[in-house]
Amino acid sequence: MDQIIDKIAALGVPGLVLLVAMAITGWAGAAAITAALALLGGPFGMLGGIAVLGILGLISQGLAEYGFEQIFRGVVDELRKQGKSKSDIEREVENYPISIDLKLKIKNYLHELQ
User: Fold this and answer.
1) Judging by beta carbons within 10 Å of its beta carbon (0-12, 13-18, 19+), is residue 43 exposed, middle or buried?
2) 2 exposed, middle or buried (CB, 10 Å; 0-12, 13-18, 19+)?
């Protein structure tokens, strides 16, 4: 059991996500991996699932290194550089399935920007 835990922990957040997705499928072995990756990949199938896990790895690494506040501020700043207006970003944030507290943090940051 300790060996399995060590191997999953070495994969980090993507390993946990894959483990949960495999448990949800109800399958075992290679079928569970295949079904889990397809589930995570949505319309892009297994390859999309692999991409999702890679992106999760990058995001979790960034969060661990820089913290949530700096990451979301950087993303907002980049959206502004790409030409999105404050009102466009605020409208998009309003439609995201995130907590009210997080929406308020993003909106407050938008209002701090000149």
Assistant:
1) exposed
2) exposed
pLDDT at 69: 87
Distant-in-sequence, close-in-space partners of 102: CB < 8 Å, separation ≥ 6: none
HSE-up (13 A, CA, CB side) for residue 65: 7
pTM of the model: 0.74
For residue 73, the tally of other CB atoms under 10 A from its CB is 17
Measured between alpha carbons, how far is 42 from 44 in angstroms, rounded to an integer?
Answer: 5
Identity of the highest mean pLDDT range in 47-51, 63-67, 97-101: 47-51
Rounded CA-CA distance 103/96 in Å is 8
